[in-house]
Write a structure and sequence with these properties.
The structure holds 2 protein chains of 2 kinds.
Chain A lengths: L8 E6 L2 E10 L4 H13 L3 E12 L1 H17 L3 E4 L3 H9 L8 E2 L2 H8 L1
Parallel strand pairs in A: 2-3, 3-4, 4-5
Antiparallel strand pairs in A: 1-2
Helix pairs in contact in A: 1-2
Chain B lengths: L11 E9 L5 H14 L4 H22 L7 E8 L3 E8 L23 H8 L2 E5 L7 E8 L9
Antiparallel strand pairs in B: 1-2, 2-3, 3-5, 4-5
Classes of the chains: A alpha/beta, B alpha+beta.
Chain lengths: 116, 153
């Protein structure tokens, strides 16, 4: 069975954090798999950083996955942040007034520094 | 069999899509909507906002009108007048009470419930119309082509 997130998400471990890079369209078709991926990353007990530099499109279902992962990480006391958010994704976060709810970092180095 | 020739509204028809109410068809909806928005002269955030609203409206049909049973269809029409781009989203699910379709309180941060907020935030007019044959739902989304809105002679 093909990976439903193939081409949309890749996961890397760096300095004790889980880096999830999102690519392309993060929509209703991808959101259920993304939700599972993010919750799995949070469950590992590491900080999770979402690289959103290559997100061409994100909708309410993608945002919902991010919110659920954020709230789960907060309940576990682990870090969670968004990195290099693309213009389209930032627009949607601003429309939802979530740009002040998520920790948003301009690049991965500053995000890693904020986790220290 | 449904009468696919029945148009949903006035104005010049740009495109009409009849598609299964499935998540994997939303990319087609977005591409088509963005092209139509650009053809009408909308650009930048305005064009992206329109495709977000149409995507969210179709998502509402997929998730709420047809629910877990799925299998329904969506008829999407994009029309233009001199002043506006009009998008008409038709489904054949149970009739929705517009009073039940409300955006959630944004201060209540939780997953879900943002789609209706996005639609109302980025479109100039959002109205549930009565479908031509009275069945299902017909949602009208209007985006004015000029920031100041319609002109009145």
């Amino acid at each position: 069975m093909p990976d439903p997130l193939s081409g949309t998400a890749s996961v890397d471990d760096r300095d004790g954090a889980c880096i999830v890079a999102l690519h392309g369209d993060v929509d209703l078709e991808k959101a259920p798999s993304l939700r599972k991926l993010l919750l799995d990353c949070v469950a590992r007990g590491k900080a999770v950083l979402i690289d959103m530099s290559a997100v061409a499109y994100i909708d309410s279902s993608g945002i919902a996955s991010l919110i659920e992962a954020l709230q789960t990480s907060m309940s576990k006391g682990t870090g969670f942040g968004l990195v290099s958010v693309s213009d389209q994704a930032m627009r949607v976060l601003q429309l939802a007034r979530l740009d002040k709810v998520f920790a948003i970092h301009p690049d991965s180095d500053s995000a890693m520094a904020a986790l220290q | 069999m449904r009468d696919g020739s029945t148009t949903l509204a006035g104005g010049e028809l740009l495109v009409r899509l009849n598609l299964p109410a499935r998540a994997d068809r939303l990319k087609l909806v977005r591409r088509c909507t963005e092209s139509a928005a650009l053809m009408c002269g909308l650009a930048g955030h305005d064009a992206k906002d329109v495709l977000l609203a149409v995507d969210e409206a179709c998502q509402n049909v997929i998730r709420h009108a047809y629910g877990e049973e799925g299998g329904g269809e969506i008829i999407l029409e994009l029309r233009r007048t001199a002043e506006a781009l009009g998008i008409y989203v038709r489904d054949y699910g149970p009739t929705t009470d517009p009073a039940d379709v409300r955006p959630r309180d944004l201060d209540d941060v939780r997953p879900g419930g943002l789609g209706t907020h996005f639609i109302r935030e980025v479109m100039d007019r959002v109205t549930f119309l009565t479908p031509p044959d009275g069945r299902g739902n017909l949602l009208e989304l209007i985006k004015y082509l000029k920031p100041e809105g319609p002109t009145h002679a």
